[in-house]
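Quick start: read one record
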Amino acid sequence: MYQRSPFVLITAFALISFFGIAQNGVISKDSLEILHRQTFDYIHAQDYSSAIASSNYLIHVAEKQNDNLYTSLGYTRLGSTYLSMRDTVNSLQYYLKALEYAEKTEQDTFVSGVYNDIGNMIMETDGNLQKAIENFQKSLELNRKGGRNEKGLLANYINIAWTHIELKEPEKAFKYLDKVSKIIEKDSVHPLYPINTNILLGRYYLQKQDFKKSIELLSTEAKIAEDLGFLNEAITAQKHLSRAYEANGDLDAAITSLKKERELDERVQEKIRTQEVRETNARFKVDEYQRDVEIAKTKEAYADSLAEKSKERSTVFTILSCVLLVGLVIIFMLFKNRKNYLISLNNKNKELEIAKDKAELLSKSKTQFFSTISHELRTPLYGVIGLSSILMEDEKLGAHKDDLKSLKFSADYLLALINDVLTLNKADENGITLEKTNFSLGKLLKNITSSFAYRLEQNKNILNLHIAGNVPDKLIGDSVRLSQILMNLVGNAVKFNESGTIDVKIEVEKINKNGTYSLKFLVIDDGIGIPKEKQTSIFEEFTQVENRNYNYQGTGLGLPIVKKLLALHNSEVLLESEEGKGSTFSFIIDYELATANEKEADIEEIKTPLNAFENMRILIVDDNKINQKVTQKILETRHFKCTLADDGAQAIDRVKNNHYNLVLMDVHMPNVDGIEATIAIRKFNKNIPIIALTAVEVDEMRKKIMDSGMNDIILKPYDVSQFLTTILRHLSVKYMEV
């Protein structure tokens, strides 16, 4: 459990004392400015608890002195602090308070700065570009009104231009970019100004389809930004440079830029991971600090209340000895106080309701964030995993086979990490329900074993599979969750073991009266083992066993996920381990038997020969050009004939005017998405198989996808063999119907 720091308690009581000083005396402008700069330094040093304390003190003192400027600055610093901690709800709330006090100062350039902060905050979090540009325009107007010279308007011009580019309004953006270019030619400015300006010009020419100029500008600025250490700008340049190369038809250069973008992004992500640890610690400190301040205030209020009541008693006794009437007045006042207490209690209840609504809103925002990030991460992974799978099959690249294995392993590892984070989030939100489908235990274990081939080879480990003879193969249950549990346990055993042996054993614990089988699963390794004092904490999130002789990397999410998934099965994971002598993880899950008449859900073999599909035509609908090419190459190597469509509107037109045996339909596309396109196609073609391609969690979209008329779903990025099996399953049905 997190222990409350004595320093935080001292800080809390010290602030209460400061508040008392501010009430009795006047703080000079110089002192306010020092306090303001100190707050800025705390934010820069990522000491967020001190930044919040200092900001609140600045606001308190400035409000007492009716100093609107420093009150606004205090709220601005609070907005910056919470934005740094990624608490966007509180950040926006404090920025709006800052704007309220800034407008009272009637200082145009100062108010302009707050509007600019709000615009930037919206751009970073909300994504409402129209709202962002309204704030940037207000900032620009106020700066002009306040007499700022052209150089002082640079930030406004670039922000407005950037927003117009995001809105795909290149001509409006160019008007501001031209002004910025002229200012930069005349005056010396910070290097970020020309870098961002030229990146925006590169995007402008990309939208104007002048690909040569776009490539020239973006490639130059990508190198300059990287050389100067501006990695985020370099990533942005490489991202749009890849699109420019792709639009110009140079796919090799586009892929090279994408790789460079990934390389730079990994460097940034490494910094972000370190930053997130500091931010998490800061949040804990902020929460503790806020609680301690409330405790300190309560104690002070209680002490004041006691003193006040003592004073009241003395007065009452004095007055009662003189006049009985005063006693009646005191009784009246007590009733009045009781009424005030009731009003106060009612207000507190309302505040609690507001806090509850706010918490629910944050929960919805978190769910939306994970849904969006799932799509945004899985979409590029589709290209990486697909291309690496294709290249591994190319005999000409035999010399690079190990490199390609490493590439695919890294992409698969990243995909598994994304799935772990999403699973953990859904478990915390009670968003996981167990499915009941037929599956083959043998095939499931075979797939799990083969997926660890590369990691086993790296660590020189041996994986043995032991299935007792009385264990049934065909079962009914949630095979996906069982696979996740075993993948995490086996993955841990492989990672924390070198030149060792891992045994996976499955045996029948008992046969229940209702006919279900209680199967016991054991994952045994002879690796480093787990110390007794760590055997409880390893099931907590982000916790790993540390060993001075080894350097193991990971998130520490595997075992918490196992624990949560087993809880859904009304089961638990048991651990037996001794440091230096390996570990045994075991659990028991009940499964029903699948009868011979029930069709197995996860068909893996299609009896129809592949050459029967040589003349089959497939329409690939995807707005991502690279993903189009990956899918096309996978299918064409199997002799399918492929046609491409960039969005739902093109797909509708092609199906209406051509014959296709099957459609692969991306769900998320601009203009007309996959759902809308499928509904339109089903109005004139009821029979053509349509399979959804989506990078969003299937649980969130399954009903909507299937209700639209689609026949099946493939989650990107996919395993090539499962991808082909799904396609052949639907083609074979149509083939046998002919």
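Confidence is low (pLDDT under 50) at residues 1-24, 548-552, 598-608.
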